[in-house]
Write a structure and sequence with these properties.
18 strands, 2 domains, 480 residues, binds alpha-D-glucopyranose, elongated, 6-stranded parallel beta sheet, 18 helices, alpha/beta
Length: 480
Amino acid sequence: MLKILHIAAEASPFIKTGGLADVIGSLPKALLSKGLDVRVVLPKYRTITQIWKEQMVWEKSITVPLGWRNQFCGIETIHHEGITFYFLDNEYYYNRERIYGYEDDGERFAFFCRAALAFLSHIDFQPQILHCHDWHAGLVSVFWEAFYSHLPFYKNMRTIFTIHNLQYQGVFPQYFLGDVLGLDARYFTIDGLEYQGQINYMKAGLVFSDLLTTVSKSYSEEIQTPYFGETLDGLLRKKRKQLFGIVNGIDYDLYSPSKDPYIYLPYHDDLQDKAFNKIKLQEEFGLQVDSNMPMIAIVSRLVSSKGLDLVVHILDELLTRDVQLVVLGTGDEKYETFFQQAVARYPSKLSVHIQFDDALARKIYAASDLFLMPSRYEPCGIGQLIALRYGSIPIVRETGGLKDTVQAYNDYKCTGNGFSFTHYNAHDMLFTIQRALKSFQDKELWRKVFLNAVHSDFSWHQSAQQYINLYKTLTFQGQK
Ligand code: GLC
């Protein structure tokens, strides 16, 4: 039986700030259902909700070396839906108000990486694969090589590193090398951790892991170019034979309009039942109540990479038409204020909710006809996958995972599950929205695109199998 340990900074339902948590909360379940022994290790942050903290079982405590330090590390577990989650506890590092954004994040996550290796020989689990996610887990592979690869318990372990977002790399001062990481100067080279005179944790993951993956095929190609490569494109080109794109799935048990307890009326592939959800939401939000009025949704972090400048640019033009727009999310103040101020101009057409609320998000997915996601870049994207599942037709920019999961509707062949545009241009987007709105008026056509959307399969089934194939190639390779 394949034994896999996922090492990540977030996992739903315990702790979430972004899409990474959705993946770590759902991929292990899919792997488990295919017969693997999958476990997950996370930091034990203070902000994990009390209900979960109460369920944690204390296992033991160990001491973890980190440079010249020896740090306490408590090991606690929760068994959740068949998966063991390990929480590594250190009050000094993780008993804080937020999970990221501290001056010593470099040390906090170096500790996490070192502890995620160290604790293994103290529990009854010897994984064959260490599957590390994003920069927070970037040091695992280099620590393995430097401190563990000669030890019998560890020496057959292999590492996979998954890039969820190349933009965040975890770059810290050079003195970290010896002082925090405990590595010698041999690692501070262009082929090692050195990056513009500093240390780059993401780069460590890319250089030292056995295999690399990212969360869609298109993004795996894009990041090999300077525009998307965030200055690491050269390295990624060099590593292209070890780099695979595997699109994310979503948990179809969790996101299912036929049994979602948060929406007004469950539905499967019936447009009328779906329209009931729209009417209820229009009532709740004080919008004009009309089931024939097309409703567009934006459920997103309100940050520039999500393409919000395009929306800002054409909002007034858009809202002169017969359409409603619902916005849910938090993020940069300039977008939050912009949308909030616009409500005064279009009270019956625009509804803005500056908050993060999963139940409300589901109501919006269920109620809306269209889902707008014009990202500048998008490694995979999860919103559009949930939207497809709920029959809210995505309008996306053709980049990364959006390109791989949304196919433009083709009138002649009746294929496609959404609408898309290529250039990062506000009027190209507006034009595409108009096309979508026109299609919405054609009941027959709309039914077809709706059915194509709800019958698209983005469960984890296929992608989990692709991960398993990679795991197998690594375990068959034998010893290094
Ligand atoms: C990051 C990416 C997003 C992806 C998610 C999970 O949040 O920005 O596109 O879906 O990770 O892999």
